[in-house]
Write a structure and sequence with these properties.
Structural class: mainly alpha
Order of helices and strands: HHH
Helix content: 40-55%
Strand content: under 5%
Number of strands: 0
CATH topology of the largest domain: Arc Repressor Mutant
Largest sheet: none
Number of domains: 2
CATH superfamily of the largest domain: Met repressor-like
Shape: elongated
CATH architecture of the largest domain: Orthogonal Bundle
């Protein structure tokens, strides 16, 4: 017996739920008053630099992303 699964062309009923999930639970285009809107930045660094940064942040008990945001903000205040 073959199993059959029906797919709709576009699942509209869940779009709002998915958007809310992607945007941290807030409605689309809303930003919580205590949080800054964030944008993702991706770039490549050498593996040895990544290792040194990860070890340094772990020793300081800091998040790597937060350390990078601080360094970038110093360069472009």
């Amino acid at each position: 017996m073959a199993k059959q699964v029906a797919f709709s062309a576009r699942p509209r009923a869940r779009e709002a739920d998915l958007d809310a999930f992607v945007h941290g639970g807030a409605q689309r285009h809303e930003v919580a008053p205590t949080r800054r809107q964030m944008k993702r930045l991706t770039f490549d660094i050498p593996a040895d630099l990544h290792t040194r940064m990860k070890i340094g942040c772990a020793r300081e008990g800091r998040d790597m992303a937060e350390a990078l945001r601080e360094l970038i903000a110093q360069r472009w205040p």
